[in-house]
Automatic annotation (TrEMBL):
GO molecular function, one term: transaminase activity
Cited InterPro entries: Aminotrans_V_dom, Aminotrans_V_PyrdxlP_BS, PyrdxlP-dep_Trfase, PyrdxlP-dep_Trfase_major, PyrdxlP-dep_Trfase_small, SP_NH2Trfase/AEP_transaminase
Residues in Aminotransferase class V domain copies: 28-330
UniProt keyword list: Aminotransferase, Pyridoxal phosphate, Transferase
PANTHER family to which the protein is assigned, alphabetical: ALANINE--GLYOXYLATE AMINOTRANSFERASE, AMINOTRANSFERASE CLASS V
Protein name as catalogued: Alanine--glyoxylate aminotransferase family protein
PROSITE patterns: AA_TRANSFER_CLASS_5
Amino acid sequence: MDDKLFLMIPGPTPMPERALLAMAKAPIGHRSGEFAKIMAEVSENLKWLHQTASEVLILSSSGTGALEAAIINACSPGDRVLVGANGKFGERWVEVAQAFGLDVEVIAAPYGQPLSTDAFKAALEADTDKTIKAVVVTHSETSTGVINDLETIVGYIRAHGEALSIVDAVTSLGATSVPVDAWGLDFVGSGSQKAYMIPPGLGFLAVSERGWAACERSTMPRYYFDLRKYRKALKKNNTPFTTPVNLVFALQTTLQMLRAEGLDALFARHARLRNATRAAVRALGLALFNPDDHSASPAITAVVPPEGIACDKLRATLKKHYDIVIAGGQGEMEGQIVRIGHLGFVGERDVLTAIAALEGALHTLGYDGFTPGSGVAAASAVLFG
């Protein structure tokens, strides 16, 4: 059946109909007073979602662009930085930092395991000369289904006194609490196609006063991603370059929806869907790539398929028979895991449908290591029990 495809991936995520309709409106001038009023509302709601009194910049980019912008505005060539890497995205920030000539020290953990907070503490406390200028941490590592202990790590960064925190919150912002001001975060980047529930194309970056001071000190070459331009334009409720007007229409709508839901309910929903998905996976006799519930990402659950069932075959069966798309592995986990997204505009019905489809696909492929209906029953017990 046409037009029934449903995304259960870490992004792009499903979109609410009212956001789609908002995007269908005729564009207006991005320098007009009418658009400035929309941007003013959007800016206030972005501050609410980020739990900050500081500006949240809007960039025409992906989340990767937002993080690159943070790195090149926070640092100068040759600066020493720590970068946490326990998945594909942490490794990406290592590559970005190296591309700009930074002195990169990697704090690594195996795929599927959280970053060691003690390793950050040791490295920062050993830096008595205060040569570490920034620490880059991926909060929710969706390549593996792990959420890192950002609050603890940032506590050590703040105790260092000199280093800035640069946070990849691309799939955690809006899915779990990221209180920018309370935790003292300096640069926090995210992307529109995740919990914001709109298409790819916008990057967001919250910047602290310490971060702005670093922007002034930075000698890194920059033009389009010079954050000072964005701050100046935002004072007039605009951006320094052409704004994707219709994406902002959609963002205005979804931020209204998120605000109506409320922060506590929003975060609780994502936690509930994660817990239900993990319970279902266990009930089906499948292995969770990250078996530790404490460090499980609220955005996605990584699953190891049964022996003899190829990841690509499982994903293809779900798409062919049920019009449901789940993600494959990334980096060294390509062909080793599948990833079930539960991020953004996703509710109980969606997770139950995906689990029922997963049961059907596993049965079709010859796996009989579960009692039919056990996955749905386990998820239902979490959601409604």
